[in-house]
Amino acid sequence: MLVDLCRNVIDLLDPESVETSVADQEAQLRAIAKAVDQLEKSGVPVPAPLRSEKTRLAVALAVQADAKQALAQLADEFEDILKDLRERIGPTPATTEPRPRGKRSKLPATPHAVLREQIVRAIQKLGGSGRVAEVIEEMGRQLEGRLLPGDLVWRATTNEPVWQNTAKWERFQMTQDGLLRRGSPRGIWELAESSQ
Question: 152 with 163: CB under 8 angstroms?
């Protein structure tokens, strides 16, 4: 059942299920943004459907980026779970050569509770909600000089330092715990009413 549940979650997050490719959507968004800019510069009112399509494409691209990020985080967590399972099972007869795996750093890293506090503080400073990049940037300012060596290790699977990846995963946990609002638009982090 657990494996089926995991597969269902992966299918829900899979950005490849989108009909239009990311490159096509990005090209469409650039063209629409250029048309909107030209209309505004000319003093011509921008038709509402054109603005709506620009917003829809921007949201769709943000959803796909978040889904890819969530899948990468899930893969990292699954690697840790597999390692733990193999350690619990113990040695097994060698039937195949072991595959090389990336190892997580053993360097000290900022505790999740501290990252939670910083997420809340950053979102509060942004007025109760903010785009992912804005929240991470604000957290970076708050944590400047306080990050530990393990926080600064580069995670190639997500193309970012460990602390940012951990903060994004912690944001997901905070929505599950009711600290951050569920159902926020993709790419937006919002405090739950009880946290404000």
Answer: yes
